[in-house]
Amino acid sequence: MIRCGGIVLAALALVSGAGVAGMVYAQQPPDALQMYRDGRYNDAVQTTLSELGENPQNMNSYSVLGWSLLALNRYEDAVEYGRQALQVSRFDHRILHIVGEANFQLGNDLEALQYYQEYVSVAPWGRLIAQVYRNMGEILIRFEEYNRADIALSTAVYHSDGNSGWWARLGFAREQAGEVESARRAYERALVLNSGNTQAQQGLARLE
After folding, report:
1. Cα–Cα distances in Å, from 149 out to 29, 102, 141?
2. What pLDDT is stored for residue 26 in this prediction?
3. Domain(s) of CATH 1.25.40.10: residues in the chain
4. How far is Cα 80 from Cα 69, in angstroms, rounded to an integer?
5. Radius of gyration over alpha carbons of the chain, in Å?
6. pLDDT tens digits for range 147-192
7. According to the model, what pLDDT value does residue 142 have?
8. Domain 33-124: what homologous superfamily?
9. Which own/partner contact pairs does 96-99 have at CB distance under 8 Å and 24+ positions apart?
10. pLDDT tens, residue by residue, 83-135
């Protein structure tokens, strides 16, 4: 009888433990970052907004919210929430990039350039540094500041040298600045990476 009772008690303990574990698992909060990684951007937006309702100073929530809004092309919302986040932490590099990128996509070049410059100051080796310098180069080309565009695009290809389009834009900036030989080298590099790059082909033709 004792053994039987022991077996019953052990079984009850296992069932009870499994029930507690199930309750703990069920109570795990939604993972907004995983939603973002899974491409569930709307779900990530709703989850992070709920998190911010509970803790308006949660910079991780602001970051995932911003990334999700960018993925949804909701650039004005990304700017709005990004500015709110910067009131909490003025130089969080994740938010600087989000606001810079959203302004870039909206065509707000001066604002984008400001936030991009702050990003490179705060995170000179950040994960997105190459893309940031590339976008800065594009803005500076629009402003016809070709020497500064050369510097930005040269830095972009330094960090990530395998993008044919970036090399072609670097060639264009150098061409407009009157740097013929360095422009030629950039166009040629673009064609090594992609022989069908029409911008580089046309650029070389102009230099002949």
Report:
1. 45, 20, 6
2. 52
3. 33-124, 128-208
4. 11
5. 26
6. 999 999 999 999 999 999 999 999 999 999 999 999 999 999 999 9
7. 97
8. Tetratricopeptide repeat domain (1.25.40.10)
9. 96/122, 96/123, 97/126, 97/128, 97/132, 98/63, 98/66, 98/67, 98/69, 98/70, 99/66
10. 999 999 999 999 999 999 999 999 999 999 999 999 999 999 999 999 999 99
pTM, two decimal places: 0.85
Residue 62: predicted pLDDT: 98
Handedness of CA 136, 138, 144, 150 (dihedral sign): positive
User: Can you read off the two tokens belonging to residue 140?
Assistant: 């500076």
Instruction: Return all residues near 92 (Cβ < 8 A) that are at least 6 apart.
Output: 59, 62, 63, 85, 86
- pLDDT of 28 reads 75
One CATH from 3.30.2130.10, 1.25.40.10, 3.40.50.300, 3.40.50.720 for 128-208: 1.25.40.10
Determine the pLDDT at residue 17: 52
Torsion of CA 26, 30, 31, 33, to 10 degrees: 170
DSSP class of 89: -
Cα–Cα dist 175/62, whole Å: 41
Task: Give the integer Cα–Cα distance in Å for 134 and 119.
Answer: 13
Which uninterrupted H or E stretch holds 44?
Answer: helix 41-54
